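Your task:
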Amino acid sequence: MEKLRGSTWDSGPKAGAPVFNVAVAMSIMVFFALCCQCGATLAIIKRETGSWKWAAFTFTYMTTLAYVSAWAAYRITLAVAL
């Protein structure tokens, strides 16, 4: 726990800044809430529809939605925190 709290960026424009902050925490929570990560769910979609096409669509759609939403949550949290 202490290693996570004390971790900082090694180089770049954020050198020395903490890696984890409230905006990062919010974006991670949003991503994991929306991302289709369950292989069993994808297998059930395949079984019910009879095609991997819908399972691949679901995985792609949910991952894209999760990424865009996590990015938005990060930016909004940074804007509100300032």
Summary: The helical segments are 2-6, 22-34, 39-49, 52-81. The two ends are 26 Å apart (CA to CA). The chain has a mean pLDDT of 91.
